[in-house]
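Write out the 3D structure for:
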Amino acid sequence: MPTIEVRNISKTFEDSIAILDISFKLEDGELITLLGPSGSGKTTVLRLIAGLIESDTGEILFDEVDISNVPTEDRNIGFVFQSYALFPHLTVAENIAFGLETRRWPKEKIISRVIEMLELVGLEGKGKRYPRELSGGEKSRVALARALAPEPSLLLLDEPLSALDMSLKESLRDVIREIQQKVQVSTIYVTHDQKEAMEVSDRIIILNNGQIVESGTPQELYLDPKKQFTAEFLGVTNLLEGTLKKKKGQFLFETSFGILEILAPIYPINTEGILAIFPEHINVSYKKMNHTNEFPATIKKSSFGGPYIDLIVTVNSTDLEVQITSSMIEKLPKKGQKVFISIPKENVLFLEN
């Protein structure tokens, strides 16, 4: 498989910038997810790589060779569209065979490859069915089999699970990742679903307004985001503005509800920034804990969710969202109840403002 690199590509539609100066590299067998809200440029990047549209600037390199002017059909790319784009007048087997026939594979090899693909995606015995006779999950499997059948150098998946219900999404997410790892095809996956991206990706690229915000492994981005947008998009609800200080060797952050001790940041003292605190990283107790970053608080809202309890607590007129496991606390906190919260300094993230 070739090493694939997108280098400084930009695209404008009329007066609207779709993507601006996008660059990234995809290693052999890696699955990268482009994650971002609607309109962030994710699908535009896929369409440019596939050759369905032309970039204004930049290069798309396969093993250092620019393929920007190579026709779509000659790029050896498999593409799974959001709508699946199955041919309604063709059977499952004929849909899978379509790309092989256009490439003029021998008939015997086509038959063998179709059988292999049906087994790979778990659709044995359904080759003679038509798309109208399939469930949504089965259609997505056919689309994946058709994309993989010609042995592509690169697989592109554009929101492949967006039309499915939650339970089906979760099972097919596992299927896609398992198949991708089995065939070791380099893959670019597009989604706006954070959980989906976290579970399928080797690496995630966060996009917003046509630009890369940040990239990293799922763990890196979730546990140690560097940008405010990344933290917000991945579900950090507690974002506090303030100023970085240092006193007696300790790094402190002055916020609206109090002073928090944090780990040594890479930014200079007196830098203004944002603190990000995950709801699950806040401890709650009915008694004083004598912990670092401990504050008295009042329960504003309490919701029981089975294994978890979701709280909103007020600290000096500032509301914080908190999530604790049901086993952590003896009884469900009630609105107006006084408690103590603590925030371990290693779980307080300093973000660029």
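The chain has a mean pLDDT of 92.
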